[in-house]
Task: inverse folding
């Protein structure tokens, strides 16, 4: 009988689901806060059901000798070391759609609260004061709402705001013009949003690209009197800079549910007038908590009893029989999608996937999901193989597949083409007999490149000196080359280089390569190998 530990607060109904399905469960909702106690007990369990309090570190995973699955009741998995879990062979699941409406509604509520200074007015009235003239607010009707990130939650906020008769503008590099028109929002660049918005709300994950997206520089670009709402992730806003602009009066108010450091016992924004603060309540409604808890119990039970995988962040949804054969091809599909996604900065309108030869007879749904997830990871690191197609559909991206009989030298290969408004980008790969994925074609140029964790991709005219420039620049700056692949269309035409490095190239290396004037493009790439 499988055994599951619930180490955070979870619905009793969810706990009963485990028992009803014949799974032994220990419900210890405070155990996750005691690292030593969790470390001592984790080796007993096949499954671990958590919320945000339990921190699943590499050390915990090392002690989890029987653990097969971790399931997070909610979407965020920052409290799980997913790399260590993958190496350990532990599946990580989440519930990506259970709290979207709740979080969006909280953002709308926070917008009302800061517009009408409701918390301060409530505290004043409770204190026996009657300061009616002190709390002069503003209407939302006819105001411009700037939405940074128009994905699942951001899209719901856009819809609700339009119902409030607000004008909605959205910044999202992955939002197509067609999808924006369908949503009834105006797609804009970030600087335009900052200059025009009366209210700004954030709905993006915390990534290297979004960290400090509202930096001191960007906050200074905002319209005077703007009000800012963040119910997404801490770290998206320069909190000290926001505090200064609130004090100066440039920013009229702010409403925050998330902070750079949590639990937030102290913060530079605490105590400032017209700053509404809540303790990460975005998903805190009874409906959302019940939904995600029940989903976790069902998903974990299905996996532990039947092997079915749902909403996994680090494993495709395939049967046990398929996994043996498809594992390397799923990894290849992810790499191809990741390459295309990292190379594409424009909104994607279509993804076309070609399966040739033996791979065309496999579970193409799982392979499609792996490709799309690889592409979407740049915008959302928490995307998984189940949610990726849904997110792509919500963004108006058309996905098409073609399968054909063996047509060339390889027994099978996958070719991924990403389409934007201005160009198409194609990359192909195969799996060699040793089970290792390889890139075999980029931009129509044939290559044979091993996939590494850190890679450097360059394009250039086919002229002498490229190999020397790359080798010398990287060597002089301590960057070791594990593998080096070149390709060209024809003599004197377009050429490419793909380098497998021991570690990510430094900014200095990239700048020095750029300074040579030899390269049309220089792009560092990262793959989960």
Result:
């Amino acid at each position: 009988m499988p055994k599951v530990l619930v180490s955070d607060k979870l619905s009793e109904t969810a706990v009963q689901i485990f028992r009803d399905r014949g799974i032994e469960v220990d419900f210890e909702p405070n155990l996750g806060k005691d690292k030593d106690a969790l470390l001592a007990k984790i080796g007993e369990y096949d499954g671990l059901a958590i919320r945000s309090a339990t921190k699943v570190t590499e050390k915990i995973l090392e002690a989890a000798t029987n653990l097969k699955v971790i399931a997070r009741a909610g979407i965020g998995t920052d409290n799980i070391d997913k790399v260590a879990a993958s190496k350990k062979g532990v599946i990580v699941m989440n519930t990506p759609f259970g709290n979207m409406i709740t979080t969006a509604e909280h953002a709308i509520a926070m917008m009302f609260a800061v517009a009408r200074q409701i918390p301060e007015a409530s505290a004043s009235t409770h204190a026996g004061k009657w300061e009616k003239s002190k709390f002069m607010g503003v209407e939302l009707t006819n105001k411009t709402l700037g939405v940074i990130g128009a994905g699942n939650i951001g899209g719901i906020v856009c819809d609700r705001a339009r119902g409030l008769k607000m004008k909605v503008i959205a910044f999202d590099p992955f939002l197509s013009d067609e999808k924006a028109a369908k949503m009834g929002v105006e797609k804009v660049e970030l600087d335009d949003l900052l200059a025009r918005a009366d209210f700004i709300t954030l709905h993006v994950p915390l990534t290297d690209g979004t960290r400090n997206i509202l930096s001191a520089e960007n906050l200074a670009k905002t319209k005077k009197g703007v009000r800012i709402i963040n119910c997404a992730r801490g770290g998206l806003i320069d909190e000290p800079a926001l505090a200064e602009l609130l004090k100066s009066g440039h920013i009229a108010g702010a409403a925050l549910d998330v902070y750079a450091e949590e639990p937030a016992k102290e913060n530079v924004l605490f105590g400032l007038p017209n700053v509404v603060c809540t303790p990460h309540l975005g998903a805190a409604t009874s409906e959302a908590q019940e939904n995600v808890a029940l989903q976790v119990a069902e998903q974990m039970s299905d996996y532990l009893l039947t092997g079915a995988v749902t909403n996994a962040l680090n494993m495709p949804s395939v049967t046990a029989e398929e996994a043996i054969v498809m594992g390397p091809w799923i990894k290849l599909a992810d790499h191809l999608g990741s390459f295309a996604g990292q190379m594409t900065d424009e909104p994607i309108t279509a993804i076309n996937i070609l399966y040739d030869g033996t791979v065309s007879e496999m579970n193409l749904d799982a392979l499609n999901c792996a490709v799309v997830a690889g592409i979407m990871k740049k915008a959302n690191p928490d995307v998984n193989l189940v949610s990726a197609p849904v997110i792509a559909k919500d963004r108006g991206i058309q996905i098409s597949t073609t399968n054909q009989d063996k047509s060339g030298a390889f027994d099978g290969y996958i070719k991924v083409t990403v389409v934007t408004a201005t160009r198409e980008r194609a990359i192909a790969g195969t799996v060699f007999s040793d089970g290792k994925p390889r890139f075999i074609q980029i931009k129509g140029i044939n290559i044979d490149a091993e996939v590494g964790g850190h890679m450097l991709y360059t394009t250039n005219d086919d002229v002498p000196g490229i190999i020397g420039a790359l080798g010398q620049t990287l060597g002089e700056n301590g960057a070791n080359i594990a593998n080096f692949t070149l390709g060209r269309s024809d003599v004197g035409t377009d050429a490419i280089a793909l380098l497998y490095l021991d570690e990510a190239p430094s900014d200095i290396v990239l700048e020095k390569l750029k300074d040579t004037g030899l390269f049309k493009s220089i792009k560092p790439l990262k793959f989960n190998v």
Notes: The domain at 1-95+283-314 is CATH 3.40.50.720 (Rossmann fold). The chain has a mean pLDDT of 93.
